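Quick one: Glycosyltransferase family 92 protein from Papaver nudicaule, structure tokens please.
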Amino acid sequence: MHTDSIYCVFQSNSTSPAKFTGVLPSSRSKFFKRSIPNNLRDLKSIHPPILSTSPEDYYLSSDESLKEKVFSWNSSMCYDSFSTEEDVILFVKGANKNHLAINRSPTELKCLFSNGVNTVITSVTSSSQEVFRCLHPSETEIHGLGDEKIRVALQLNDSVIPSVAYYRPLARNLIHPEKKQLCASTMVHNVSKFLREWVIFHSRLGIDKFVFYDNGSEDGLQDVVNKLTGDYNIDIEVIFWPWPKTQEAGFSHSAIRSRESCTWMMYTDVDEFVFSPKWVNSLEPSSGMLKSLLPINISTLPSQKIGQVMIFCYEFGPSDQKVHPVEGVTQGYTCRSRKLNRHKSIVLLDAIDTSLFNVIHHFELKDGYQSKKVISRDAVVNHYKYQAWSEFQAKFKRRVSAYVADWTDPVNPMSKDRTPDLGFEPVEPKDWGERFCEVQDMGLKMLAQKWFGLVSSEGHIMVWQDA
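--- reply ---
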């Protein structure tokens, strides 16, 4: 079925255009977005629509889909799975209370593998946040389920959580590519205009591969990625991850999925740039700069093995910018708060605890590993958090990836994710341009100009402006 002109035909033969959005990583199923027709929105239950190439098709009452209901993201749902050699990792919304840090015991849970007729049940071995680890069915049990698509779900006591996740046995890959030493993974949503600067900068400093979890971007992400891979030969992988408010789960997925291809993984956002004062005298960037922050030999002292490097952040303010600076955020925003804030991390993937538990940008580690805090004279993260007002509004409206309330929603007013003294009204404060400005910090601006500045007929531009 071609994806150019697809319609969803609902009960009562109401139709809605369906937009192809991506391919789900586990089942390889195509993912479509569509709006619910206005005349159906007040119904207590809506049955799954059928996909059609014509809005003239009829929704027959005898259709098998009438036996089900449309799943709501506002309720519990099994939404993805991933198979390892040891087990099956199931991603489930609503089974644990993440905001209260309450996780159910694995003994309360079972994993169900079903082809719609027959079901195989296995034990759950780990329950943390939205990540549940289940035992594989045996080869005999899988054979009994046949060649049909096998849906995997989580059973809680006597109830089964609805599922759109499918089981795929681990593919046996006899050829293992050489591991990249240092990769970077982040979740992105409509940040394409920031991407060139962030990728080019960090690739020149030593990131060997970028793994982007695309949270439903609609701003030409793939076009930007294609140009970066084609023009600069940068290794970039895009994983379609449409699930709202699941950044921790996405990072867990990234950590386990990339374990065979990457040794260390850097977790920062695309408005965060690693900077070391020790680099300012370097005439050009080198691929060893970021790697120099990693421990030299992780196995020298087993009782003191470093599994995570934590780098603290300086938060930059609007710096009197009225719009997004065309030369990039490192050039446009130069005024910051004095105090160091939250940290971001570079993690040894083999050191991550089997629960895959993480609080955004750092992980729980296995016994025998510890985290190392980097002092500010060795490295910091420049976090361009509070930008020009129009960008600030867009950023906090697109925070679909993390479990953080929109800044106009008066929920959890003491959260560190709140903008200090902003309130909840979507009105630009008169002094917005001067806020969060305690220190003029030109360090990264001048260094980036030296490394990435170009002289053109239009004057001095940055390499990432050359689109």
